[in-house]
Design brief:
The protein is an alpha+beta fold. The protein has helices at about 5-15, 45-50, 100-110, 145-150, 160-165, 220-225, 240-245, 275-285, 290-295, 320-330, 345-360, 370-380, 400, 420-430, 435-450, and strands spanning about 25-30, 55-60, 65, 70-75, 80-85, 125-130, 135-140, 180-190, 190-195, 210-215, 235, 250-255, 260-265, 300, 335-340, 365-370, 385-390, 450-455, 460-465, 470, 485. The relative contact order is 0.15.
């Protein structure tokens, strides 16, 4: 679709909006259609679902678990009891009870659906609704970060009676009963979603009367709409307009636990790189240059775990001499082929990496660009020899990163396996942020095995119209828009 036609089309949609004072409507850009509202599946957009639903806990801007539907919790050994608020209600006025969480988790724990988040339940032994107010969670071993883990949207409840009657149809827009600060008002697939205030929500009433989400896939079109005042929050603004954007009054940067790295396939049927080859590639990329070629807000990463999770500092891995020495001793394919998913910022990054490896290893590098949905399916099923991947912490703990590289993790795209590494991560789960264990696990990944090549940590850069205040992203890049208000 022609970009200018698209802009006028979207402006036409906005012209059809309910007429309210501007300070009552908060407009958000979405890059693509939601796909599904079922938060048990992988295509859900937290920007929307976090406004419709609320779990037992939520993580604040400092990364700490805070009460949400649960007013408090008490842990004894591997048993944690969560006490629910008596004034937490669904959008139809019914009370939110412990059984609503029990049945929601049961559908994933018992594999009633295939969920990419099923591994988040693997440390949970049992869930018991003791009464409407009390939910008991039994873990396989004491879990130091359980309240942080349960802030993830896959642990959101469903209204038991409605879900039992409708099953998967419960998640269709016309049927969904929400327990968060907003509920669905209008739902135009592939173009526009409107949420209105849930009058039964227990906390301080949501400030914006309406939230309007616009699906705008083209970055420059989204930027044009932002400048025209038709979008209030533009996440991940286009890199091609970097110099102009960073000088904008509404430019904001939030520290978030998001990391990018190159991964390798460890499958036997792939053209594999031995340890020397993997370490050579790692040492041939000077990640300190990445902020100069991207947005400028990126933090070069010398570790897999981000610094906000008490990760010890590490030295720059780059050494052209060491890289060439290791490469000469290694077993590797004649050509390095690196796969990545289509996004302008990734294309800029990968073209630079291609030039760096060609120069520092004197070898041919080809890039394989794929569409996003095809790419993740390819990673899950076949795992390219070398690939770009990103890790966004599911919960606020170093284990959220390290757990992804465990042998049985579904997010371990390259099928890396090291039993000693798995044991270290198991020990971290039982401890409370033991720095020496976190550092040991990280060294195993990055230096001992060179199984991943950390590139950079990405703070979330965004554009926010200056008239809106109280906007906060937590370290997981999630936001509760109920707190936002107009000046």
């Amino acid at each position: 679709m022609n970009r200018f036609f698209l802009i006028f089309y979207i402006l036409g949609l906005l012209g059809c909006s309910v007429v309210l004072a501007e300070e009552s409507i908060f407009r958000v850009r979405l890059v693509e259609d939601l796909g599904t509202l079922d938060w048990g599946y992988g295509e859900v957009n937290a920007q929307v679902v976090d406004q419709l639903m609320e779990g037992l806990t939520f993580v604040d801007r400092r990364g700490n678990a805070t009460p949400a539907v649960a007013r408090k919790w008490v842990s004894t050994g591997n048993i944690t009891q969560f006490f629910l608020r008596s004034d937490a209600k669904w959008s139809d006025g019914r009370r939110v009870c412990a059984e609503d969480f029990e049945i929601a988790w049961q559908r994933i724990r018992e594999a009633q659906i295939v969920s990419p988040y099923s591994h988040l339940f693997k440390d949970i032994q049992a869930v018991r609704a003791k009464s409407c107010e009390k939910l008991e969670v039994e873990t396989k071993t004491p879990l130091s970060y359980l309240p942080e883990l349960l802030s993830h949207w896959v642990f959101y409840p469903v209204q038991k009676n409605s879900y039992q009657k409708q099953r998967d149809k419960f998640f269709e827009p016309e049927n969904l009963i929400s327990n968060g600060p907003y509920k669905i008002k209008k739902w135009h697939k592939d173009s526009r979603y409107v949420l209105e205030k849930n009058e039964y929500y227990f906390a301080e009433k949501a400030r914006p009367l309406l939230l309007e989400f616009l699906v705008v896939s083209d970055d420059q079109t989204a930027l044009t709409l932002y400048k025209a005042g038709k979008i209030d929050w533009l996440k991940d603004p286009p890199i091609l307009s970097r110099d102009q954007i960073v000088r904008s009054e509404g430019f904001r940067v939030f520290p978030t636990a998001v990391g990018y790295h190159l991964g390798f396939s460890f499958l036997e049927n792939k053209k594999s790189f031995d340890r020397n080859a993997r370490c050579a590639i790692s040492k041939a990329i000077d990640v300190t240059k990445i902020p100069k070629i991207l947005f400028g807000t990126e933090i070069p990463s010398h570790t897999f775990v981000p610094p906000q999770f008490k990760m010890e500092k590490a030295n720059n891995r780059f050494s052209k001499a060491d890289a060439q020495m290791l490469w000469s001793k290694s077993t590797h394919p004649e050509i390095i082929e690196i796969s990545y998913y289509a996004k302008q910022i990734h294309e800029t990054l990968m073209q630079w990496i291609q030039a760096e490896l060609a120069k520092n290893l004197n070898t041919k590098v080809v890039l394989n660009k794929m569409e996003s949905k095809t790419y993740w399916s390819e990673l899950a099923n076949r795992s390219p020899s070398v690939f770009l991947s990103g890790t966004t912490a599911y919960f606020s703990h170093a284990a959220a990163f390290l757990d992804e590289m465990r042998t049985e993790s579904p997010a371990n795209w390259g099928k890396y396996s090291n039993k000693n590494y798995d044991r270290i991560v198991d020990s971290i789960k039982k401890s409370n942020f033991k720095r020496e264990l976190i550092a040991q696990a990280d060294r195993t990944l990055v230096h001992d095995d060179c199984s991943v090549i950390p590139l950079y940590f990405r703070p979330t850069a965004l554009l926010l119209k200056p008239r809106w205040i109280n906007f906060e992203l937590n370290p997981l890049a999630r936001v509760q828009l109920k707190k936002v208000r107009s000046r």
